[in-house]
């Protein structure tokens, strides 16, 4: 399992948070229970299986929902 | 007597305004609607835990959850009335609260162990504290001192109860708090 933290542009409304959370939970390879959107820090924390999905796909999933990703950090084997 | 058409016209204007605020510059009242919706979900959830908690700590936790839902209920009214006093229109139907809530519930949670119930309550309180912090900042910017004050009191209440619940499961107040930004 790989842990990623993605920094997004400032999230303004709680509904954005729900959209991102739902979107990521439906992405194959993402550990559903791990998805956490930090509203005030404008960050997403997520654990994923590298054999099924990579960071680019996760970033794209968030950006496709309309939320630009500013930077991402990955911690492997966590 | 008002007609259904008159009422629906007023409602349509209010909803259009709220929609506009959400998509342009969100205000403290819009974020506070989400706080109220979460309190509404917590009302049911804390009852679930109050009823179904099991084990050696039944008597203690049964009472703790009862206190929590009573206090939760008091905040629901206090915060909504503060919005009204500031000229806003808080959500007031189950449909709206279901739409706005960000806290999930599940029938299977009745089978949580006592510690899992405590842990989940901490998680839900932390999640609602996130919105409370944002609403405090927005109320500050808007110069709405009274709303800011009520929200700060609610945040302080959540802080203390998170600490107490964490202590019950042998953790420090801020331990495992994912919302703390370490960077």
Which terms summarize this structure?
heterodimer; A: 78 residues; alpha+beta; Alpha-Beta Plaits; four-stranded antiparallel β-sheet; 2 helices; 4 strands; B: mainly alpha; Ferritin; 73% helix
Describe what this molecule looks like in 3D.
The complex is a heterodimer of chains A (78) and B (183). Chain A has 78 residues and is an alpha+beta fold. Chain A is 28% helix and 29% strand. Chain A has helices at residues 14-25, 55-64; strands at 2-8, 36-38, 43-48, 69-75. A four-stranded antiparallel beta sheet of chain A has the order 2-3-1-4, covered by helices on one side. The longest helix of chain A is centred in the first third of the chain and has 12 residues, at 14-25. The relative contact order of chain A is 0.34. The mean pLDDT of chain A is 91. Chain B is mainly alpha-helical and 183 residues long. Chain B has one domain (19-168): Ferritin, CATH 1.20.1260. Chain B contains six helices and no strands. Chain B starts with a helix and ends in a 15-residue tail after the last helix.
């Amino acid at each position: 399992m790989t842990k990623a933290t993605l920094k997004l542009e400032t999230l303004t409304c709680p509904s954005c948070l729900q959209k991102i959370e739902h979107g990521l939970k439906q992405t194959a390879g993402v550990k559903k229970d791990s998805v956490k959107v930090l509203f005030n820090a404008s960050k997403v924390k997520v654990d994923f299986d590298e054999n099924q999905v990579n960071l680019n796909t996760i970033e794209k999933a968030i950006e496709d929902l309309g939320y630009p990703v500013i930077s991402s950090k990955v911690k492997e084997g966590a | 007597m008002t007609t259904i058409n008159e009422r629906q016209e007023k409602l349509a204007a209010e909803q259009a305004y709220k929609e506009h605020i959400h998509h342009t510059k969100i205000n403290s009242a819009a974020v506070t609607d989400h706080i109220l919706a979460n309190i509404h979900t917590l009302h049911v959830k804390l009852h679930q835990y109050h009823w179904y908690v099991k084990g050696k700590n039944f008597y203690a936790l049964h009472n703790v959850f009862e206190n929590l839902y009573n206090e939760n209920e008091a905040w629901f009214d206090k915060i909504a009335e503060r919005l009204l006093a500031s000229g806003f229109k808080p959500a007031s139907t189950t449909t709206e609260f279901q739409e706005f809530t960000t806290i999930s519930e599940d029938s299977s949670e009745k089978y949580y162990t006592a510690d899992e119930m405590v842990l989940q309550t901490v998680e839900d309180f932390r999640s609602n504290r996130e919105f409370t912090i944002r609403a405090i900042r927005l109320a500050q910017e808007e110069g709405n001192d009274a709303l800011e004050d009520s929200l700060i009191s609610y945040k302080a209440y959540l802080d203390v109860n998170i600490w107490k619940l964490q202590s019950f499961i042998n953790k420090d107040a801020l331990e495992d708090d994912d919302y703390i930004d370490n960077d």
